[in-house]
Amino acid sequence: MAEPYVKKLSTVLLEAITDKDPLVQEQVCGALCALGEAQPAEVLRACEEYLWQHEKLAHPYRTMILRAMETVVSSHISDLDKDMARAVIFLASSEMTRVKDLVCDWQQAASNVLVAVGKQFIGLVMEEVLSKFQPGALPHYFVVQTLANLAASNVFGMVPFLTSILSTMLPMLGMAKHDTMRVAFCCALQHFSESTLEYLANLDQAPDPTVRKDTFATDIFSAYDILFNHWLQSREAKLRLAVVEALGPMSHLLPSEKLEEQLPKLLPGVLALYRKHAETFHVSKSLGQILEAAVSVGSRTLEAQLDALLAALHAQICVPVESSSPLVVSNRKEVLRCFTVLACCSPDRLLAFLLPKLDANNERTRVGTLQVVRHVINSAASQMEVRKPFILSSMRLPLLDTNSKVKRAVVQVISAMAHHGYLEQPGGEAMVAYIVQQCALPPEAEPQKPGPDSEDPATDSVRDVSISTLYLVSTTVDRMSHVLWPHLLEFLTPVRFTGALTPLCRSLVHLAQKREEVGADAFLIQYDSNVTLPSPYAITTRLLTVSSNPYLGDGRGAASLRLLSVLHRNIHPLLGQRWATTVPLLLEHLDEHTEETLSQKEWEERLLAFLRDTLAVVSDNTWICQLSLEMCRQLPCYNGTPQEKNFLYKCIGTTLGAASSKEVVRKHLQELLETARHQEEAEREGLACCFGICATSHLDDVLAQLEDFMRSDVFRRSTGIFNIFKDRSENEVEKVKSTLILCYGHVAARAPRELVLAKVESDILRNIFQYFSTKVLGIKVETKDPALKLCLIQSVCMASQAICSSAQAGSFHFSRKAELVAQMMEFIKAEPPDSLRTPIRKKAMLACTYLVSLEPALEERVQADLIRGCLHSVMGVLPEPEGEEDRQESLYLDTMRALEDLLTSLLRRNMTPQGLQIMVEHLSPWIRSPRGHERVRALGLSACLLQHFLEHLHVSALVPFHNLGLLIGLFSPRCADLWPATRQEAVSCVHALLYLQLGYEGFSRDYRDDVAEQLLALKEGLVHPDPAVLFHTCHGIAQIIAKRLPPEQLISLLLTLFESLGDPDKNCSRAATIMVNCLLRERGSMLQEKPHLHPVAGAGPGAQPHRTGPGAAPGEDEQGRPVQGDPGLPAKQLPWPRGHAAAPCGHVCPARGPERPGVWARGARAVPAAVCRAPAAGQLHPGRPAAPEPAGQGEEERGLGRGPQEPRALQPRCSALGPCSFCTRAASSGRKRAVASPPLPRAPYRGQIPSPAGRAQHQPLHHWPVQAPSLSALFGGAGPGGLPSGPWGGRAGQAGWSCLREVVGGRPQQLGRRSLGSSLGPPQWHFGAQSTAPGPRGKGRKLIPQGLQTSPPVPGTWGRTGPVPRGGDRRGQRQYAPPRRHRRHRSTRAWRSGRGRVPEPGAHPALRRPSRKCECAGRHRRDCTPRLASPQRGPWAATP
């Protein structure tokens, strides 16, 4: 870079330094410094010229330039030539003294430039400065300041000038009248004295080695006299501190006799400043220098001042320390330095002063004294050598102090003692024990760490300080090795030192390795000579037990295992090689995990495997028995830590399992049962685990010992009738019984599988129930102890699991299965249904889950009761309010998971569509529950069951999924439920059902259907609360269903959706209307193609599919079970006319009989498959004559409306549509006249909300009447122009007709279409205008729907409804509600003819105009059942 360019650039920067922005000024200054790094001479010359040329430049800008020059000079002082240095010196001197007034920043910057140049060119600088330091006149303030700084920065260059400087300065001291100038002179004298002392201390490096202290003694004493006698008395605090700072180093240059003479006045004068100044650092520093000077000259007057000195210094050390003030911390260091000086000259006087103060009442006094003792031990080691026993004995009282600050100070003193051999003296063991005891302090008991404003700067806790001290002493102090080894082993087993195990193990590992390096003999422990040391069995037990909780106490698990591995030779000589491979694997497992990710169960299993491997390697029964004895002895030590005690029980069981002495095993087991604390749940669990593990090798001995204990005095004391009322005794016995029951369960779980089947019923379960059932004088007394119930449930679980895991489980007949299930159900039913507080029901359901999988299978009634009871116990539990404990949430989730497992296990026993439907039947009341949380749970369980069914679906032949439409119809309206979670689960259910259909059609399990997968994409729309988005999504779901629904399932799906039209949840009702609309639009053409197609009777929920093939026996289904009646409709109420029968193919055929075809003949039977020969769907065929009706039929079989008749089974054969495995089963009626079917299900009446069992009568799923006589019956009889006869006449019927006609065609007249999205409910009717529809007598009356609800009909009666509210069509009011007198004098003719009666909504057309005769034979009961008119005159007349 060219020099002119640098100069120009420097000039530009210098011009910019006058910017008003301080940030710009700083940047310019930094740029000058950076440029000076490359061209220092050019930048300095440019700055010099600029300052000379701009003499009127303001001093702040001149200051910035001078600071830049100082930086450049300091960095490149060796590169400057004399000319440049002289120019810079002259400029700086001129800038410094240009004005007489003090402008500190400007003049200080100029002085700093001179000092920087003086490091290399001291002669030139002194020449310039001394020219301004002339005798007889006070120099400028910064001239004196510059001389002082030069003396500090360049000692060897400045000291030769001090003689002339002092001779010139001394007369000036009397001339200085202002405190500012006096402070400058004091500072100069201080630095001159310090430079002289440093020069004299390094004469070998000094340019003039002939310089002596006497050279400056006279001048320094003259200055001392002025400073001490005159200036020290000033009222200006700053001046006094400057004087005392100067007196410290000046005292070293005073003549010895003068110092001795001045000490009696000097020391009190300096000590007096402690009372005058808050900041005492400078006073303490000066005092230390004066004391050092006095000791160096061997002053005798110091002894007389010692007491006052100790008192003043001790008071200073006891001042509370503020971490925010560095001067206070520095003051403590200077005070301790003073104590060191006094300890060297008067150690006895010092200890006599300090040690008694260890017993002072003031905490600060004790802490300060201990700090002084520690400092003296470290700094005056030679003087304290002979006084070690005295100091050790004086520490007894501090060891008992409970104050945390005192404890911290004591630990620091012990650390100093360890480094200087104090602990090797008698009494040193107490100090080691104290350190270990402080290491064992619990972290939670420690006080909070002090903040920045605290009095104590030490933020480390006592425990942290102790841990670091113990490790430091054991690893760095070689002389402590023989003191700590093997003494530290004594602290491993006592419980009070548990918290110190980690630092103890680490220190012992290091010590053991050092001893092993020395030699094997030095490493081996001599237990005979060290009787206080723990035995190898105790060490092994202790270290293995505490390793069960590895991350507690700063990772004591890894530390314990490392120590165990190091001590292998002292534990057993055969373990070294094996532990060298197994212990690193355990440590590696701990390194791979954290406290949150480590599985406690897996870790304990690894440790138990390590123990089993160790016992196998030792293979010494005596050693194993000794180890088991020591484990039993240490059990009481872990009463406060249940987890570790539980693991120790497992270790005992493992050790006893390896022992070969049966007497020892039974003896230890008996002791464990007698000494165990049965009230503790963790201990019961641990003891039971011990018995179970031991039973793996000693099954017979364990069972025999349990029976012996049952016969012992423990039970005899509390089995009498008088003791049964003693709560305490009874409670104790219940806890013991709980332990024994749990022991049997663990024995069953861990016993060898080849032996457990022979023992489980004869010994284990028999004794379990014997303990659980208490009898007093032959009367069974039920227990109220929940712990006993939980133990029984857990034992049953483990016994069931043991049976299931046995190889002979398939052939094992578990005779107690029904008894155990019944007992579990008692427990479940005893729990409150609305709250979840105990895990009893969860564990009971888990036990039932295991029991269900065993043989023999449960009866259907028992299975149904089990499902119903579990659902009732769990589904109704109220949700926990927000903010409850996480434990309750976890318990609820576990309980729901147990219920899922139970239902899944039951479904697994019958993996057929019928089995799936049975499960859904039980869930259907909860799916339709008015309570949102119950619906969410029910839908979640349904989704889980469907998913399980789908995952385990195995189809060997292509068979239809016969109840697909019913299940989809149940779940799909829930896609619009009020609860978002319910909507999501409903979509999952529909999604699984569609894939089930694909599976039954032959698709592979991993096949993904694009249409079905669209359901998952529609889930997002169900989360949105907007009704428009919600119902649009429901429409999309219905379209997907329509694309994948088989044709034969459409009618059943529609009928199920019709039932949902009256759902109490308006959203679901509207969703049902939307889905019906969409289905009819998408698939309605199929209904037009098959106008006479009827859904197969028996195809509804609960129907059993028939076995196909020639080998199928009459009256049996596919599983060979007896065929039962269709639960959809009663046999007398099938939707086809008398004289006709339903063929297996779905055709309605008139029966062949003595009566003419087309007449509803009595004794009609369902047509067997062999008779039906329909060439095409929808045709009617004559059936075979029916068998005569058996005699002795009662009222119920004659169809008086009091109950369904059991239908007759048919041969499952159908030739019209080919082989069919789902054929109709119908039944005959014993009536001469047919009785009309009851209406299809309606929505609940007002005030009758469907609810689960136990709250209100709700129609179960298997009573869904899926059979429909015709589409006209579904949508209101003969259609818009005729009499409504179906269940949804009125608004729903008209809307349905309108929707249907739009899809499949209809009459040409215009229909008033209603929106299916409106809120639909059950129709109500009243008599209106005359209708032209055909009727029994040609005078039918039209039923006009009202938007109001009616009361439900009385079961067992026909045509009776509650009062119809007034309003609506006024033409019908007069006829509907005649005056009371008319109703009172109603004639028999009017009653028989049916006038004035309100038929049931949706009743059969024949019921609208009943015949004149009735079943009451003239008694005219209002609840009698009328006989029907001739069927040929109604719309249901058969067509040949």
Key terms:
single chain, 1440 residues, mainly alpha, two-stranded antiparallel ribbon, elongated, disordered C terminus
Helical segment count: 60
Record the strand order, biggest sheet. Answer: 1-2
Rg from alpha-carbon coordinates: 53 Å
Terminal CA distance: 121 Å
Largest sheet, in brief, is: 2 strands, antiparallel
Residue share in β-strands: under 5%
Tally of strands: 6
| Low-confidence residue ranges | 446-458, 718-728, 775-779, 1091-1415, 1417-1440
- Multimer state: single chain
Write the layout of secondary structure elements.
Layout: H1 3-16, H2 22-38, H3 40-53, H4 59-75, H5 82-97, H6 104-118, H7 122-130, H8 141-153, H9 155-175, H10 179-201, H11 214-229, H12 237-251, H13 256-272, H14 281-296, H15 301-304, H16 306-317, H17 326-345, H18 347-354, H19 363-379, H20 381-384, H21 388-393, H22 396-399, H23 404-419, H24 428-439, H25 462-476, H26 481-484, H27 501-518, H28 520-523, H29 536-546, H30 552-566, H31 568-571, H32 576-592, H33 600-618, H34 621-634, H35 642-658, H36 662-675, H37 681-695, H38 699-710, H39 713-716, H40 727-750, H41 753-772, E1 774-776, E2 779-781, H42 786-805, H43 817-830, H44 840-852, H45 860-875, H46 886-908, H47 913-927, H48 932-951, H49 964-971, H50 980-1000, H51 1010-1023, H52 1027-1044, H53 1050-1060, H54 1066-1089, E3 1140-1142, E4 1148-1150, H55 1271-1274, H56 1290-1304, E5 1324-1330, E6 1341-1346, H57 1370-1376, H58 1380-1384, H59 1388-1393, H60 1405-1408
Antiparallel strand pairs: 1-2, 3-4, 5-6
Helix pairs in contact: 1-2, 1-3, 2-3, 2-4, 3-4, 3-5, 4-6, 5-6, 5-7, 6-7, 6-8, 7-8, 7-9, 8-9, 8-10, 9-10, 9-11, 10-12, 11-12, 12-14, 13-14, 14-17, 16-17, 17-18, 17-19, 19-23, 23-25, 24-25, 25-27, 27-30, 29-30, 29-34, 30-32, 32-33, 33-35, 34-35, 35-37, 36-38, 37-38, 37-40, ...
